[in-house]
Amino acid sequence: MSEASLPHGFQYSSARHERETALSGMWLFLATELLFFGPLFLAWLYCRHWDTAGFDYGAKQTDLLLGTINTALLVTSSFAYSAGLAFIERRDQRRLEQCCIVAWMLGAAFLVLKFGVEWREDFARDLFPGVNFSVEGSAREGAQLFFVFYFVSTAIHGMHMVVGLCLVGWIIARNDKFTGERHGAVTVIGLYWSFVDMIWVFLFPLIYLIGRGA
Fold first, then answer.
1. Which residues of the chain have pLDDT under 50?
2. What is the pLDDT of residue 15?
3. Domain count of the fold of the chain
């Protein structure tokens, strides 16, 4: 089937026009997301500059092992989703479904570890900023500010992950609707999924690595 004969929305001149519009729209959305996360990261680094010792102490309270495992889960999930995209381009719907299921399960495992295990440990150790914050001494103020950034950024990232899981679940549920010629939704959602993973790649060193060896 030629591209000119493929079905498309009435507002588009062709299936190619529809696909390119969807891609452009997602890139524009991701650009606005960068305008959101970028200032958050800059504020984090700026505050750390003025209280390096406190931020370093805060970083040492985090669970590096869980952070590393979660990073591996998200990187692997992106690889699985990318493999699924490659399979649907070769008209293999079954492999697309399998790869998306793997990506979904890895993303769900990330959320369970992050919020069900790691956040639970943080609250149990009184690391949530407030009057009961467990860190005392000269590092208290900086460590508390570190955990403000920690909880805010991981909560926002977690919300993006939930949206991503819903989108990947939608791909799984509608797997039989995608073909080698018509899989624009798979490509667009893949951009979002990779973006969310990339944000974590920036968060990982900010939370767990910078200052840990100090």
1. 1-5, 7-10, 12
2. 58
3. 1
What's 193's domain CATH number? 1.20.120.80
6 lies in some domain:
no
Phi, psi of 168 (to 5 degrees): -65, -40
Query: CB under 8 Å to 176, separation ≥6 — which residues?
Result: 93
| Residue carrying the six token digits 């492999």 | 95
**Angle at 146 (CA atoms; ends 140, 150), nearest 5 degrees:** 140
- Let me know if residue 8 belongs to a domain: no
130 is written with which tokens? 């407030």
d(CA 161, CA 140): 31
Query: Which amino acid type is present at position 66?
Result: L
Give residue 4's Cα distance to chain centre. 36
Handedness of CA 85, 92, 106, 76 (dihedral sign): negative
Question: Does residue 46 fall inside a structural domain?
Answer: yes
CA 197, CA 106: separation in Å to the nearest integer?
12
Contact 87, 96 (CB under 8 A): yes
- The residue range of the domain holding 193 is 13-209
Domain annotation covers residue 4: no
User: Are 184 and 210 within 8 A, CB to CB?
Assistant: no
Q: What is the reported pLDDT for 142?
A: 92
- pLDDT at 207 (0 to 100): 94
The pLDDT score that the predictor gives to residue 1 is 45
Q: Are 168 and 190 in contact (CB under 8 A)?
A: no
Of 109, 64, 70, 86, which Cα lies nearest the Cα of 183?
Answer: 86
